[in-house]
Amino acid sequence: MLLLFFSQYTLAATTADIDTWGTMDENPPQITADLTNHTGYTGSNHTFAINVTDDESGIDYVELHYWYPSTAVTIVRMNHTVNDTYQTNITLLTDYSIIYYIFKAVDNLGNYVETSTANVTIYDIIPPNISDVGANPFATTQNHYVNISCTVTDNWDVANVTLNITSTDELYQMDKTGNTYYKNLTFFITGNYQYHIEATDTSGNKAVSDNYNFQIVSGELTGTSSAFSVYVPLSIYQNSSSIVMAKLLNLEDGTPKSGFAQNISFSIIDPNGDYILNNATPYELKSGIYVCNFSVGGTLGQYIVIGTCHYSDGLNFMDAGMFTVKWDIYNNMSRFVERMGDLIFLVNYQGKNITDKVAFQIREEGLRIRSYIPKADQKSFFTELAEIALGKFYELFFYLFVVVGIIVVVGTIYGSRKAKQTAKNISKLPTIIADIVAKNEKERK
Protein backbone atom coordinates (compact mmCIF):
# COMPACT_ATOMS: atom_id res chain seq x y z
CA MET A 1 0.00 0.00 0.00
CA LEU A 2 2.77 2.38 0.94
CA LEU A 3 4.62 1.66 -2.32
CA LEU A 4 1.44 2.22 -4.33
CA PHE A 5 0.87 5.53 -2.55
CA PHE A 6 4.35 6.83 -3.37
CA SER A 7 4.06 5.66 -6.98
CA GLN A 8 0.80 7.50 -7.47
CA TYR A 9 2.18 10.57 -5.75
CA THR A 10 5.29 10.61 -7.93
CA LEU A 11 3.28 10.19 -11.14
CA ALA A 12 0.89 12.94 -10.14
CA ALA A 13 3.73 15.27 -9.24
CA THR A 14 5.53 14.62 -12.51
CA THR A 15 2.37 15.16 -14.54
CA ALA A 16 1.67 18.36 -12.67
CA ASP A 17 5.21 19.60 -13.33
CA ILE A 18 4.92 18.91 -17.06
CA ASP A 19 1.55 20.62 -17.30
CA THR A 20 2.77 23.56 -15.29
CA TRP A 21 6.00 23.87 -17.38
CA GLY A 22 4.00 23.70 -20.59
CA THR A 23 1.57 26.39 -19.54
CA MET A 24 4.29 28.56 -18.02
CA ASP A 25 6.06 29.45 -21.31
CA GLU A 26 4.02 29.90 -24.42
CA ASN A 27 5.63 33.23 -25.19
CA PRO A 28 8.42 33.61 -27.77
CA PRO A 29 11.66 35.48 -27.02
CA GLN A 30 11.64 39.25 -27.16
CA ILE A 31 13.95 41.05 -29.62
CA THR A 32 14.59 44.41 -28.03
CA ALA A 33 17.07 46.02 -30.43
CA ASP A 34 18.68 45.51 -33.84
CA LEU A 35 22.26 46.70 -33.32
CA THR A 36 23.35 46.18 -36.93
CA ASN A 37 24.96 49.07 -38.78
CA HIS A 38 22.86 49.53 -41.91
CA THR A 39 25.81 50.85 -43.92
CA GLY A 40 28.48 48.42 -45.15
CA TYR A 41 31.36 48.28 -47.61
CA THR A 42 32.34 45.79 -50.31
CA GLY A 43 34.67 43.07 -49.11
CA SER A 44 34.53 44.24 -45.48
CA ASN A 45 33.72 42.18 -42.40
CA HIS A 46 30.25 43.34 -41.28
CA THR A 47 28.77 42.69 -37.83
CA PHE A 48 25.11 41.70 -37.47
CA ALA A 49 23.91 41.99 -33.86
CA ILE A 50 20.69 42.04 -31.81
CA ASN A 51 19.57 42.17 -28.21
CA VAL A 52 17.16 39.32 -27.39
CA THR A 53 15.68 38.16 -24.07
CA ASP A 54 13.49 35.35 -22.75
CA ASP A 55 12.63 35.52 -19.04
CA GLU A 56 10.84 32.18 -18.95
CA SER A 57 12.45 29.06 -20.48
CA GLY A 58 15.52 30.96 -21.79
CA ILE A 59 17.13 31.35 -25.20
CA ASP A 60 18.09 28.18 -27.07
CA TYR A 61 19.65 29.78 -30.15
CA VAL A 62 19.54 32.83 -32.41
CA GLU A 63 20.00 32.74 -36.19
CA LEU A 64 20.80 35.24 -38.90
CA HIS A 65 19.11 34.57 -42.25
CA TYR A 66 20.63 36.67 -45.04
CA TRP A 67 20.57 36.87 -48.82
CA TYR A 68 21.57 39.08 -51.72
CA PRO A 69 19.36 39.89 -54.71
CA SER A 70 18.86 36.70 -56.76
CA THR A 71 20.71 34.47 -54.27
CA ALA A 72 19.53 31.74 -51.90
CA VAL A 73 19.13 32.33 -48.17
CA THR A 74 22.10 31.52 -45.94
CA ILE A 75 21.47 30.66 -42.27
CA VAL A 76 24.12 31.30 -39.61
CA ARG A 77 23.96 30.57 -35.86
CA MET A 78 24.84 33.70 -33.90
CA ASN A 79 27.18 33.87 -30.92
CA HIS A 80 26.11 35.00 -27.47
CA THR A 81 28.58 37.71 -26.50
CA VAL A 82 27.61 39.78 -23.42
CA ASN A 83 24.35 40.31 -21.56
CA ASP A 84 21.47 39.96 -24.05
CA THR A 85 23.55 40.49 -27.20
CA TYR A 86 24.00 37.96 -30.01
CA GLN A 87 26.17 38.67 -33.03
CA THR A 88 27.94 37.22 -36.05
CA ASN A 89 30.28 38.58 -38.71
CA ILE A 90 29.74 38.26 -42.47
CA THR A 91 32.17 39.27 -45.21
CA LEU A 92 30.11 41.35 -47.62
CA LEU A 93 30.37 40.25 -51.24
CA THR A 94 31.91 42.68 -53.70
CA ASP A 95 29.28 42.28 -56.44
CA TYR A 96 26.20 43.64 -54.67
CA SER A 97 24.98 46.99 -53.38
CA ILE A 98 22.51 45.58 -50.81
CA ILE A 99 22.10 42.59 -48.49
CA TYR A 100 18.79 41.54 -46.87
CA TYR A 101 18.42 39.79 -43.53
CA ILE A 102 16.11 38.69 -40.72
CA PHE A 103 16.81 37.42 -37.20
CA LYS A 104 15.18 34.33 -35.70
CA ALA A 105 15.29 33.67 -31.94
CA VAL A 106 14.16 30.32 -30.45
CA ASP A 107 13.64 29.54 -26.75
CA ASN A 108 14.15 26.22 -24.98
CA LEU A 109 10.53 25.13 -25.60
CA GLY A 110 10.62 25.85 -29.32
CA ASN A 111 8.80 29.17 -29.21
CA TYR A 112 10.36 31.51 -31.74
CA VAL A 113 10.16 34.97 -33.16
CA GLU A 114 11.36 36.36 -36.50
CA THR A 115 12.01 39.98 -37.32
CA SER A 116 10.74 41.66 -40.43
CA THR A 117 13.15 41.95 -43.36
CA ALA A 118 15.85 44.59 -42.98
CA ASN A 119 18.81 45.46 -45.17
CA VAL A 120 22.33 46.85 -45.23
CA THR A 121 23.28 49.22 -48.03
CA ILE A 122 26.70 48.25 -49.41
CA TYR A 123 29.00 50.93 -50.75
CA ASP A 124 31.77 50.07 -53.19
CA ILE A 125 35.28 50.91 -51.95
CA ILE A 126 37.26 48.67 -54.31
CA PRO A 127 39.08 50.53 -57.11
CA PRO A 128 39.34 49.14 -60.64
CA ASN A 129 42.08 46.66 -61.50
CA ILE A 130 44.53 47.78 -64.20
CA SER A 131 46.66 45.13 -65.91
CA ASP A 132 48.46 44.28 -69.16
CA VAL A 133 49.66 47.85 -69.69
CA GLY A 134 51.93 48.26 -72.70
CA ALA A 135 52.92 50.29 -75.74
CA ASN A 136 53.18 48.72 -79.18
CA PRO A 137 55.75 49.26 -80.45
CA PHE A 138 58.02 50.18 -77.54
CA ALA A 139 59.87 52.46 -79.93
CA THR A 140 59.17 54.01 -83.30
CA THR A 141 60.04 57.04 -85.38
CA GLN A 142 58.25 60.36 -85.61
CA ASN A 143 54.75 60.39 -87.11
CA HIS A 144 54.28 56.64 -86.67
CA TYR A 145 51.51 55.29 -84.47
CA VAL A 146 52.07 54.03 -80.94
CA ASN A 147 49.21 51.92 -79.61
CA ILE A 148 48.94 52.09 -75.82
CA SER A 149 46.58 49.53 -74.34
CA CYS A 150 45.57 47.94 -71.04
CA THR A 151 42.93 45.76 -69.43
CA VAL A 152 40.64 47.33 -66.82
CA THR A 153 38.07 45.44 -64.74
CA ASP A 154 35.93 46.39 -61.76
CA ASN A 155 33.70 44.55 -59.31
CA TRP A 156 30.87 46.92 -60.32
CA ASP A 157 31.40 49.05 -63.43
CA VAL A 158 34.22 51.09 -64.94
CA ALA A 159 33.25 54.72 -65.51
CA ASN A 160 36.25 55.99 -67.48
CA VAL A 161 39.87 55.18 -68.29
CA THR A 162 42.41 57.90 -69.01
CA LEU A 163 45.86 57.77 -70.56
CA ASN A 164 48.22 60.25 -68.91
CA ILE A 165 51.36 61.10 -70.89
CA THR A 166 53.23 62.56 -67.94
CA SER A 167 56.20 63.68 -70.04
CA THR A 168 54.03 66.18 -71.91
CA ASP A 169 51.23 66.51 -69.32
CA GLU A 170 48.58 65.35 -71.80
CA LEU A 171 45.41 63.39 -70.98
CA TYR A 172 43.48 61.17 -73.41
CA GLN A 173 40.22 59.29 -72.92
CA MET A 174 40.88 55.72 -74.02
CA ASP A 175 38.70 53.77 -76.46
CA LYS A 176 37.16 50.48 -75.37
CA THR A 177 36.57 46.98 -76.69
CA GLY A 178 35.26 44.72 -73.93
CA ASN A 179 37.66 45.08 -71.01
CA THR A 180 40.48 46.26 -73.27
CA TYR A 181 41.18 50.00 -73.44
CA TYR A 182 43.49 51.51 -76.05
CA LYS A 183 44.66 54.72 -77.68
CA ASN A 184 46.57 55.18 -80.94
CA LEU A 185 48.77 58.27 -81.00
CA THR A 186 51.51 59.79 -83.12
CA PHE A 187 54.33 61.94 -81.76
CA PHE A 188 56.41 64.54 -83.56
CA ILE A 189 59.11 65.18 -80.96
CA THR A 190 61.83 62.59 -80.38
CA GLY A 191 62.62 61.42 -76.88
CA ASN A 192 61.53 59.18 -74.04
CA TYR A 193 57.85 59.37 -73.13
CA GLN A 194 56.55 58.26 -69.76
CA TYR A 195 52.90 57.42 -69.20
CA HIS A 196 50.47 55.77 -66.82
CA ILE A 197 46.81 54.73 -66.82
CA GLU A 198 44.11 56.14 -64.53
CA ALA A 199 40.81 54.29 -64.10
CA THR A 200 37.71 55.35 -62.15
CA ASP A 201 34.65 53.22 -61.39
CA THR A 202 31.02 54.29 -61.04
CA SER A 203 31.47 54.68 -57.28
CA GLY A 204 34.31 57.16 -57.71
CA ASN A 205 37.10 54.77 -56.69
CA LYS A 206 40.28 55.50 -58.61
CA ALA A 207 43.25 53.34 -59.56
CA VAL A 208 46.56 54.50 -61.04
CA SER A 209 48.97 52.14 -62.78
CA ASP A 210 52.74 52.14 -62.54
CA ASN A 211 54.71 54.36 -64.90
CA TYR A 212 55.76 52.95 -68.28
CA ASN A 213 57.90 54.22 -71.15
CA PHE A 214 58.13 54.26 -74.92
CA GLN A 215 60.64 55.94 -77.21
CA ILE A 216 60.31 58.15 -80.28
CA VAL A 217 63.47 58.31 -82.39
CA SER A 218 64.51 60.20 -85.48
CA GLY A 219 65.10 58.60 -88.84
CA GLU A 220 63.15 57.12 -91.69
CA LEU A 221 61.29 53.93 -90.95
CA THR A 222 59.90 51.99 -93.86
CA GLY A 223 58.22 49.53 -91.55
CA THR A 224 58.69 46.35 -89.62
CA SER A 225 59.42 42.96 -91.06
CA SER A 226 59.81 39.41 -89.81
CA ALA A 227 63.15 39.51 -91.62
CA PHE A 228 64.56 41.69 -88.80
CA SER A 229 63.85 40.71 -85.18
CA VAL A 230 65.33 41.97 -81.91
CA TYR A 231 65.67 39.72 -78.85
CA VAL A 232 66.20 41.05 -75.32
CA PRO A 233 66.52 39.47 -71.86
CA LEU A 234 63.37 39.35 -69.76
CA SER A 235 65.13 40.85 -66.74
CA ILE A 236 68.62 41.34 -65.30
CA TYR A 237 70.02 42.50 -61.97
CA GLN A 238 71.42 45.95 -61.33
CA ASN A 239 75.16 46.52 -61.88
CA SER A 240 75.43 43.55 -64.24
CA SER A 241 76.00 42.83 -67.93
CA SER A 242 74.01 41.08 -70.63
CA ILE A 243 73.46 41.03 -74.40
CA VAL A 244 70.84 42.02 -76.94
CA MET A 245 70.56 40.19 -80.23
CA ALA A 246 69.11 40.71 -83.69
CA LYS A 247 68.30 38.15 -86.37
CA LEU A 248 68.41 39.26 -90.00
CA LEU A 249 67.09 37.24 -92.94
CA ASN A 250 67.22 37.78 -96.68
CA LEU A 251 63.91 39.09 -97.95
CA GLU A 252 64.22 37.00 -101.10
CA ASP A 253 64.50 33.52 -99.64
CA GLY A 254 64.45 33.84 -95.82
CA THR A 255 68.01 32.59 -95.39
CA PRO A 256 70.34 34.24 -92.80
CA LYS A 257 71.84 37.49 -94.10
CA SER A 258 75.53 37.68 -93.24
CA GLY A 259 78.11 40.49 -93.26
CA PHE A 260 75.60 43.18 -92.39
CA ALA A 261 76.78 44.36 -88.94
CA GLN A 262 77.61 47.90 -90.10
CA ASN A 263 74.00 48.37 -91.23
CA ILE A 264 72.57 47.44 -87.81
CA SER A 265 72.57 49.54 -84.64
CA PHE A 266 71.30 49.15 -81.09
CA SER A 267 70.19 51.78 -78.59
CA ILE A 268 69.14 51.16 -74.98
CA ILE A 269 67.29 53.80 -72.95
CA ASP A 270 66.91 53.61 -69.17
CA PRO A 271 63.75 54.60 -67.22
CA ASN A 272 65.03 58.18 -66.91
CA GLY A 273 65.31 58.56 -70.68
CA ASP A 274 69.13 58.36 -70.68
CA TYR A 275 70.96 56.26 -73.26
CA ILE A 276 73.23 53.49 -71.97
CA LEU A 277 73.80 52.48 -75.62
CA ASN A 278 73.36 54.92 -78.49
CA ASN A 279 73.47 53.55 -82.04
CA ALA A 280 76.01 50.90 -81.07
CA THR A 281 77.23 48.58 -83.83
CA PRO A 282 76.91 44.86 -83.01
CA TYR A 283 79.23 42.02 -83.96
CA GLU A 284 78.14 39.00 -85.98
CA LEU A 285 78.02 35.94 -83.75
CA LYS A 286 77.19 33.63 -86.62
CA SER A 287 75.49 33.97 -89.97
CA GLY A 288 72.52 36.32 -89.61
CA ILE A 289 72.86 36.65 -85.80
CA TYR A 290 74.14 40.01 -84.50
CA VAL A 291 74.98 40.60 -80.84
CA CYS A 292 75.71 43.68 -78.74
CA ASN A 293 77.03 43.64 -75.16
CA PHE A 294 75.86 46.14 -72.56
CA SER A 295 76.03 46.87 -68.84
CA VAL A 296 73.53 48.50 -66.50
CA GLY A 297 74.11 50.45 -63.32
CA GLY A 298 71.93 50.81 -60.28
CA THR A 299 68.85 52.35 -61.92
CA LEU A 300 65.88 50.02 -61.50
CA GLY A 301 62.90 49.77 -63.83
CA GLN A 302 62.08 49.14 -67.48
CA TYR A 303 64.68 49.64 -70.21
CA ILE A 304 63.78 50.04 -73.89
CA VAL A 305 65.92 48.37 -76.57
CA ILE A 306 65.76 49.70 -80.13
CA GLY A 307 67.27 47.84 -83.05
CA THR A 308 67.42 49.43 -86.51
CA CYS A 309 68.51 47.97 -89.83
CA HIS A 310 69.29 49.87 -93.02
CA TYR A 311 68.47 46.99 -95.34
CA SER A 312 68.77 48.88 -98.61
CA ASP A 313 68.11 52.30 -100.07
CA GLY A 314 64.60 53.27 -99.08
CA LEU A 315 64.15 50.18 -96.90
CA ASN A 316 64.77 50.63 -93.18
CA PHE A 317 63.50 48.30 -90.47
CA MET A 318 63.09 48.76 -86.74
CA ASP A 319 62.23 46.37 -83.94
CA ALA A 320 62.15 47.01 -80.20
CA GLY A 321 61.96 45.20 -76.90
CA MET A 322 61.91 45.88 -73.19
CA PHE A 323 63.58 44.35 -70.15
CA THR A 324 63.47 45.05 -66.43
CA VAL A 325 66.42 45.77 -64.15
CA LYS A 326 65.79 44.37 -60.66
CA TRP A 327 67.34 44.98 -57.29
CA ASP A 328 70.14 42.44 -56.80
CA ILE A 329 69.25 40.76 -53.53
CA TYR A 330 72.14 38.28 -53.58
CA ASN A 331 74.96 40.75 -54.23
CA ASN A 332 73.51 43.17 -51.72
CA MET A 333 73.18 40.40 -49.14
CA SER A 334 76.80 39.42 -49.75
CA ARG A 335 78.03 42.98 -49.31
CA PHE A 336 75.74 43.39 -46.31
CA VAL A 337 77.40 40.44 -44.56
CA GLU A 338 80.87 41.64 -45.62
CA ARG A 339 80.26 45.02 -44.03
CA MET A 340 79.13 43.39 -40.81
CA GLY A 341 82.29 41.29 -40.94
CA ASP A 342 84.33 44.50 -41.18
CA LEU A 343 82.60 45.80 -38.07
CA ILE A 344 83.31 42.59 -36.17
CA PHE A 345 86.97 42.82 -37.26
CA LEU A 346 87.23 46.36 -35.90
CA VAL A 347 85.82 45.30 -32.54
CA ASN A 348 87.81 42.07 -32.21
CA TYR A 349 91.19 43.54 -33.12
CA GLN A 350 90.89 47.17 -32.14
CA GLY A 351 88.17 47.07 -29.50
CA LYS A 352 90.67 47.21 -26.64
CA ASN A 353 91.83 50.61 -27.76
CA ILE A 354 88.84 52.43 -29.26
CA THR A 355 90.22 55.72 -30.44
CA ASP A 356 88.28 58.49 -32.14
CA LYS A 357 89.51 57.13 -35.46
CA VAL A 358 88.24 53.62 -34.74
CA ALA A 359 84.92 54.99 -33.48
CA PHE A 360 84.56 56.97 -36.69
CA GLN A 361 85.34 53.87 -38.77
CA ILE A 362 82.73 51.85 -36.90
CA ARG A 363 80.11 54.54 -37.39
CA GLU A 364 80.92 54.83 -41.11
CA GLU A 365 80.70 51.07 -41.58
CA GLY A 366 77.31 51.16 -39.88
CA LEU A 367 76.13 53.87 -42.24
CA ARG A 368 77.35 51.91 -45.27
CA ILE A 369 75.33 48.91 -44.14
CA ARG A 370 72.21 51.00 -44.50
CA SER A 371 72.80 51.22 -48.26
CA TYR A 372 72.22 47.46 -48.48
CA ILE A 373 68.94 47.54 -46.57
CA PRO A 374 66.00 47.40 -49.04
CA LYS A 375 64.04 50.56 -49.72
CA ALA A 376 60.25 50.87 -49.85
CA ASP A 377 60.17 50.01 -53.56
CA GLN A 378 62.12 46.79 -52.93
CA LYS A 379 59.47 45.04 -50.83
CA SER A 380 60.09 41.72 -52.56
CA PHE A 381 63.39 41.55 -50.66
CA PHE A 382 61.90 39.72 -47.71
CA THR A 383 59.88 37.44 -49.96
CA GLU A 384 63.01 36.37 -51.80
CA LEU A 385 65.00 36.27 -48.56
CA ALA A 386 62.65 33.58 -47.27
CA GLU A 387 64.04 31.23 -49.93
CA ILE A 388 67.53 31.35 -48.43
CA ALA A 389 68.55 28.43 -46.18
CA LEU A 390 67.51 28.72 -42.53
CA GLY A 391 71.13 28.47 -41.46
CA LYS A 392 71.83 31.77 -43.20
CA PHE A 393 68.95 33.35 -41.34
CA TYR A 394 70.38 32.41 -37.96
CA GLU A 395 73.83 33.60 -38.98
CA LEU A 396 72.43 36.90 -40.18
CA PHE A 397 70.29 37.18 -37.05
CA PHE A 398 73.39 36.82 -34.85
CA TYR A 399 75.44 39.35 -36.83
CA LEU A 400 72.65 41.91 -36.70
CA PHE A 401 72.57 41.87 -32.93
CA VAL A 402 76.35 42.18 -32.80
CA VAL A 403 76.27 45.17 -35.14
CA VAL A 404 73.48 46.88 -33.22
CA GLY A 405 75.36 46.38 -29.97
CA ILE A 406 78.54 47.86 -31.41
CA ILE A 407 76.85 50.95 -32.76
CA VAL A 408 74.90 51.52 -29.56
CA VAL A 409 78.11 51.34 -27.49
CA VAL A 410 79.96 53.69 -29.82
CA GLY A 411 77.02 56.05 -29.90
CA THR A 412 76.83 56.08 -26.12
CA ILE A 413 80.57 56.68 -25.61
CA TYR A 414 80.98 59.39 -28.20
CA GLY A 415 77.46 60.81 -28.24
CA SER A 416 77.13 60.19 -31.94
CA ARG A 417 73.56 60.83 -32.97
CA LYS A 418 74.20 59.23 -36.34
CA ALA A 419 75.46 56.05 -34.71
CA LYS A 420 72.40 55.86 -32.48
CA GLN A 421 70.07 56.47 -35.40
CA THR A 422 71.85 53.80 -37.44
CA ALA A 423 71.42 51.32 -34.59
CA LYS A 424 67.75 52.18 -34.34
CA ASN A 425 67.22 51.59 -38.06
CA ILE A 426 69.13 48.31 -38.16
CA SER A 427 67.50 47.01 -34.99
CA LYS A 428 64.19 46.77 -36.83
CA LEU A 429 65.52 44.02 -39.10
CA PRO A 430 65.96 41.17 -36.57
CA THR A 431 62.28 41.24 -35.60
CA ILE A 432 61.18 41.02 -39.22
CA ILE A 433 63.65 38.26 -40.02
CA ALA A 434 62.69 36.31 -36.88
CA ASP A 435 59.04 36.39 -37.98
CA ILE A 436 59.99 35.08 -41.42
CA VAL A 437 62.08 32.29 -39.89
CA ALA A 438 59.24 31.25 -37.60
CA LYS A 439 56.76 31.25 -40.46
CA ASN A 440 59.15 29.27 -42.68
CA GLU A 441 59.72 26.65 -39.98
CA LYS A 442 55.98 26.36 -39.36
CA GLU A 443 55.33 25.72 -43.05
CA ARG A 444 58.14 23.15 -43.19
CA LYS A 445 56.57 21.25 -40.27
Explain what this protein looks like in three dimensions.
With 445 residues, the protein is of the alpha+beta class. The chain has four domains: 30-123, Immunoglobulins (Immunoglobulin-like); 129-217, Immunoglobulin-like (Sandwich), CATH 2.60.40; 228-326, Sandwich (Immunoglobulin-like), CATH 2.60.40; 329-444, no CATH class. The chain contains seven helices and 29 strands. The chain has helices at residues 2-24, 329-350, 356-370, 380-385, 390-414, 417-426, 428-444, and strands at residues 30-34, 39-41, 45-53, 59-67, 74-77, 79-80, 85-91, 98-107, 112-114, 118-123, 129-136, 139-141, 145-153, 158-165, 170-173, 175-177, 180-186, 191-201, 206-208, 212-217, 228-231, 235-237, 241-248, 264-269, 275-280, 283-286, 289-295, 301-312, 315-326. Strands 2, 4, 5, 8, 9 and 10 form a six-stranded mixed sheet that branches. Strands 12, 14, 15, 18, 19 and 20 form a six-stranded mixed sheet that branches. A five-stranded mixed sheet has the order 22-29-28-24-25, with no helix packed on it. Strand 4 and strand 5 (74-77) form a beta hairpin. Helix 3 crosses helix 5 (390-414), helix 3 runs parallel beside helix 6 (417-426) and helix 5 (390-414) packs antiparallel against helix 6. The chain starts with a helix and ends with a helix. Mean pLDDT is 80; it is low at 1-23 and 378-390.
